[in-house]
Amino acid sequence: MHRSFIAGVGHYIPEKVVTNLDLEKIMDTSDEWIRERSGIVERHFVADDENNADMAEKATHKALDRAGLRVEDIDFIIYATLSPEYFFPGSGCILQEKLGLGTIGALDIRNQCSGFIYGLSVADQFIKTGVYKNILLVGSEVQSRGIDLTTRGRDVSVLFGDGAGVAIISRSENKDRGIITTKLHAEGKYIKELWCEDPGSVKNPRLSHELIDSISHWPYMNGRYVFKNAVTRFPEVIQETLKEAGLNKDDVDLVIPHQANMRITEAVRMRLELPEEKVYSNIHKYGNTTAASIPIAMSEAIEEGRIKAGSLVCLAAFGSGFTWASALIRW
Ligand SMILES: CC(C)(COP(=O)(O)OP(=O)(O)OC[C@H]1O[C@@H](n2cnc3c(N)ncnc32)[C@H](O)[C@@H]1OP(=O)(O)O)[C@@H](O)C(=O)NCCC(=O)NCCS
To answer: Which atom of ligand 1 sits closest to the CA of residue 260?
Structure first.
């Protein structure tokens, strides 16, 4: 069996900054409410002519540079997003064409905030078994076009932002580094606690004027219920991953949780009794970028020198589904 490791990470954040004060101008909210409840100060939204795979393409070039690889070295694409360009086909096909990657396979996965770790686990299996050598793993989201930016949708819409992060997962024969283990979970009985009901194939036809009037195309979130589950599942899955690897929390150099909410991150940190410097947070700048939040955070943590060769890094996520997941990586 081979070993897989993260050869390079890159991210792209769209230029347009939307502060809490900007949101105050378009809905009944306040900078104070958003900061207190979530830690978010600003987020970025795509430009009118910018789409999901455009961001992923830019992040890919950055990651390839850092990995010392060329576009043509990529032999498979895994694309995690809940905000693809089209109902079908997936964004992986769009990115494959943009990168000029001939006919290599492109797999889209739909696991929302846990999407990047689910994708990492799939990539890890393909690399370990020798099927592929360099997999491009993407987390990219255009949330700004799918949220209700009015007072009616404020409990959800103030939390989300756009951005992309990618990692190149490559084959290594060095047994001392790489992906140690991944753990994936889901609990489908909670689908309706955080979901976007329409348009979907339950309705016939899929799209109608009545449906739009009923506003079921905007995401719905039972915020308190999501919060309660997140603060339980994050520590649980981190401990599960550490236990399987025969390690404990004090061995970890950096935990990178999905950036859902500063209060969730803080609660998880306290439950695990970790010092502040061991838990990464950049939610104040970007809000919740769903599948993109972990690779964006990894990319920034590397730039800031908080992940170095030999660092033990733990990734963890929780989100719609509910789904949750964790990964342990020796850098
Ligand atoms: C969403 C969340 C921040 C709301 O915080 P909360 O403390 O539960 O607040 P509540 O829902 O009780 O709302 C309190 C009040 O603020 C109001 N409110 C909601 N959104 C608001 C906003 N953007 N601005 C101002 N007021 C707002 C509510 O209408 C409510 O008013 P009321 O008391 O008059 O009815 C919190 O539940 C949370 O963080 N949940 C997890 C969200 C998450 O991370 N989701 C993604 C997971 S991947």
So the answer is: 44
Q: Which atom of ligand 1 is nearest to the CA of 23?
A: 23
Q: Which residues partner with 220 through β-bridges?
A: 195
Residue having the nearest C-alpha atom to atom 28 of ligand 1: 155
Q: What pTM was computed for the model?
A: 0.98
In 3D space, the residue among 316, 302, 309, 303 whose CA is nearest the CA of residue 330 turns out to be: 309
pLDDT tens across the length of the chain (331 residues): 899 999 999 999 999 999 999 999 999 999 999 999 999 999 999 999 999 999 999 999 999 999 999 999 999 999 999 999 999 999 999 999 999 999 999 999 999 999 999 999 999 999 999 999 999 999 999 999 999 999 999 999 999 999 999 999 999 989 899 999 999 999 999 999 999 999 999 999 999 999 999 999 999 999 999 999 999 999 999 999 999 999 999 999 999 999 999 999 999 999 999 999 999 999 999 999 999 999 999 999 999 999 999 999 999 999 999 999 999 999 9
113 is known as an active-site residue:
yes
How are the residues of the chain apportioned to helix, strand and coil, as percentages rounded to the nearest 5? 40, 25, 35
Please tell me whether residue 87 adopts helix, strand or coil conformation.
coil
Catalytic-residue membership of 258: yes
Q: Please tell me the distance between residue 194's alpha carbon and the centre of ligand 1 in angstroms.
A: 13
Distance CA 177, CA 213 (A): 53
Q: Assess contact for 250 and 272: CB atoms under 8 A.
A: no
